[in-house]
Amino acid sequence: MNEGEFVVLLGPSGCGKTTLLRHLKRELTPVGTTAGVIRYKGQLLSELPAESAAGEIGMVFQNPDAQIVMDTVWHELAFAMENMGLEPAVMRSRLAEISGLFGLEPLLYRSVHELSGGQKQLLNLASVLLLQPKLLLLDEPTSQLDPVAAREFIQILHRLNQEMSMTIIISEHRLEEVLPLADRVLLLTGGQLRAEGTPRDMVRRVGEEQLWPHLAYLPAAARLFLALSPDIDRAAEAPVPLTVRDGKRWLQETLPHLAALERNNGKAATGAQEAGPHTQPEAAVMSCREVTFRYRKDGPEVLKKLSLSLYPGELLMLMGGNGAGKSTLLQLLAGLAKPQRGKVEMNKGLTAGYLAQNPLLYFSQDTVQEELEHMAHYAGMTEQTAREEIAALLGVFQLREVLQSHPQDISGGQQQQTALAMVLLLKPDILLLDEPTKGLDPGAKEKLAALLQLLRDRGMSILIVTHDVEFAASYATRCAMLFDGGITAESPPERFFGANFFYTTAVNRMVRDWLPEALTVEEVARTWSNSVSRS
Amino acid sequence: MNGGFRSVHPSVALLYYAGLLLFAMLLFHPLYLLTELTAVAILLLLQGQGRPLLRGLPFYLLMAGSVAVLNPLFSHRGSHILFYFLDQPITLEAILYGLMMMVVLLTLFIVFISYNYTVTTDKFMYLFAAAAPKSALLTLMAIRFVPLFQRRLHQITLIQRIRGIDVGTGNLRKRMRDGMTLLKVLLTWSLEEALQTADSMKARGFGLRKRSAYAIYKLDRRDVALLAILAVCGLIVLGGWLQGYGKIEIYPRMKPVQFGGGEATCFIGFCLFALTPLWLEGREKWLWRSSQRNVYLSATPIKTGPHLMSSRSR
């Protein structure tokens, strides 16, 4: 690792990314047997003086909340400097510097819990930077943030790397933004370094060496490149596009068939429209009419005269910015809160199951098995049916190996699946999920999608609140946008995202001039192969 | 809302309130107590805190008033028996003593209201941290957990209701068990997160050496002057108290109140001490009022005489 490098670690959950990063930070080296040596500036890491080990190597963790120690922003920022026993004058000038750089000045006297997740993570980064580190370690820092905040955070990292020549090692699931910035990418699987190279090399190698399971980590432009370019092209050392801009340029330059593609699609598009709007006036399983909600008497209106319906068997994805009231709406639908005005209606005899963002809220027993049994007991099942039901769910969710573990000890994805299994034991007809893709790696996301499909096949209607545009574009049957307390747009994903200019998938942004309704790599590839076979 | 007395350094405010508290308890003299009561009440009114004061007043009056009523009923000391109530002698001294106690209580209440408004938690913690950095850090972290746990418990209650764990339904035994379960969830979650917090603290060099304290409050010249004034006045009053001023004797027999030269010095010192913030607050009010009235002339005064440019070109 050289000074000033921007290194990205990638790999599925549990592959050892966090363990590796923790080994690089002496104070946090995990307990266990260790072999091999780590050197920092030619010196053994374990022999480094305590102060430079703490100050020169900074680390930011995954969970923005858990890292915060103090209750006001200025105090949290000062915390690290106070630990180092710096002079008040030094502290003051450093604080001034960092507040200017990050624009934290208006927040300085705010209480920490008023901040958004993105602001909290920025605060954590700033607090570490105040010790003026030379090496910055980041363990999935954006996994709990919404896409806008994540992008801002990564831009700041980029600036630190470019302007201060700070060495950065970051582990990430969301590579759309990070990969184009990286100097080097390390692919870890099962605790071993599987591949290493520049981002472009990695794309090539993923394409050539059949590292297909890792395809999902690549940015959309690279995936499109791999899906569309014939093998000869790949060998011809064409520069691999990583960003939307490069991807679009590559499409313009290298695809002579674009004209044909466009014509072809014109027919397909009209065909799709003839098939008619999906929103046939079917009886809704759940609907809310002109719902208005405030948390406090004198509080602002979170939802304003909002109307929304959920139809049988559909997968509705509700999107919207931070604090738009998405989670609130879901709680209203689940019956956990009552609107001041308007009505939430459900068909007679139907029940709704609600999965909150934080699966930890669901656990109260000592093992996963006890959790499930307790829930089955509450649902009023006999022991026989409970056992069968739990066995079936365990099979579907692949939770057998963690059955005897404490719910706090299993991975985030498994926690979420356990919580979902618990909700399913209540046999709901409607499923309400709050940000189920948060913090999941691409593999886990695909698993979740397959699961949702399975549930829909069994006649369940699902409403998901999410920030994840790519996920919504791939799997939703209908998308809706929540803005300013109401639903502003509502249509099938192709039209929903096709009509958007900024708020759409990276693939769509690349190909929208030719295929305005194509949202995913698969769709583009399908249209592409069709047009090739016809011409 | 940070002008006037609230803008002084926390140490000045703390000295002021500590002094008021001490004097309210030491000086058992109606003149002093009423002066203090009026001073703090006016200070609160000047700071625009009349409404909270008024809201709490019935409660305080009830508390203090009950002392005034109960004291003569239970205490029968004193030599001037006014009448008999249920065969119990009611003495003039006991009534006066009760009234005095009432004024003391009212003074204490009102001093606390003012204290809460002026010395906020972070100001107090700031001073505390200077005195005892480690315990202050611990206290701060603990204080932060109270609202945090409240928010979390609310979330947990909401979700666990789905699985039938609810303190609102069922018999007492079930409710208690469910309550414990909810607390257990809160504790497991919070302890798990505390591990990460500990990591984050260690990663930022906690415990490597003696902590310094970041200062957000500056002790300026006005604060130093105020500290000096308050200290001198306070010492005068304390000295007077040691000489026996600022006290009246009610039990066992009321003595006539005398007001001599020593008493006057002591009282003037006390007035200066108690009224200093009023002066600050009043000046603040005046400042803003007069600044509204002011008509600002052009910022650059017009000078007469030859122009710079023209004089040079000559």
SSE map:
The complex is a heterodimer of chains A (535) and B (314).
Chain A: E1 6-10, H1 17-24, E2 39-40, E3 43-44, H2 50-56, E4 57-60, H3 73-83, H4 88-102, H5 117-129, E5 135-139, H6 147-164, E6 167-171, H7 175-178, E7 184-189, E8 192-197, H8 199-208, H9 220-228, H10 231-235, H11 244-254, H12 258-274, E9 286-294, E10 301-310, E11 315-319, H13 326-333, E12 341-346, E13 352-355, H14 368-378, H15 383-397, H16 412-425, E14 430-434, H17 442-457, E15 461-465, H18 469-475, E16 478-483, E17 486-491, H19 493-499, H20 506-511, H21 521-534
Parallel strand pairs in A: 1-6, 1-7, 4-5, 5-6, 11-15, 11-16, 13-14, 14-15
Antiparallel strand pairs in A: 2-3, 7-8, 9-10, 9-12, 16-17
Chain B: H1 10-26, H2 30-46, H3 50-74, E1 81-85, E2 88-91, H4 92-118, H5 121-131, H6 133-160, H7 172-203, H8 221-242, H9 261-293, H10 308-313
Antiparallel strand pairs in B: 1-2
Query: Rg of chain A from C-alpha positions?
Result: 25 Å
How would you sum up the global shape of chain A? globular
- Pattern of helices and strands of chain B: HHHEEHHHHHHH
Q: What is the gyration radius of chain B calculated from CA atoms? A: 29 Å
Extract low-pLDDT stretches of chain A.
266-279
Helix fraction bin of chain B: 55-70%
Say what oligomer this is: heterodimer
What does the average pLDDT of chain A come to?
82
Which two chains have the most extensive interface, and how many residues on each? Answer: A-B, 58 and 46 residues
**End-to-end span of chain B in angstroms?**
56 Å
Number of strands of chain B: 2
Q: In total, how many domains does the architecture of chain A comprise?
A: 3
Strand composition percent of chain B: under 5%
Instruction: Work out the count of structural domains of chain B.
Output: 2
Count up the helices of chain A.
21
- The name of the CATH topology of the largest domain in chain A is Rossmann fold
CATH homology superfamily name of the largest domain in chain A: P-loop containing nucleotide triphosphate hydrolases
The total of helices of chain B stands at: 10
Integer average pLDDT of chain B: 84
* Structural class based on helices, strands and sheet pairing of chain A: alpha/beta
Transmembrane segments (chain B): 12-33, 53-74, 95-118, 124-146, 224-242, 262-280
InterPro entries (chain B): ABC/ECF_trnsptr_transmembrane (IPR003339)
Main location (chain B): membrane
Organism (chain B): Paenibacillus albidus
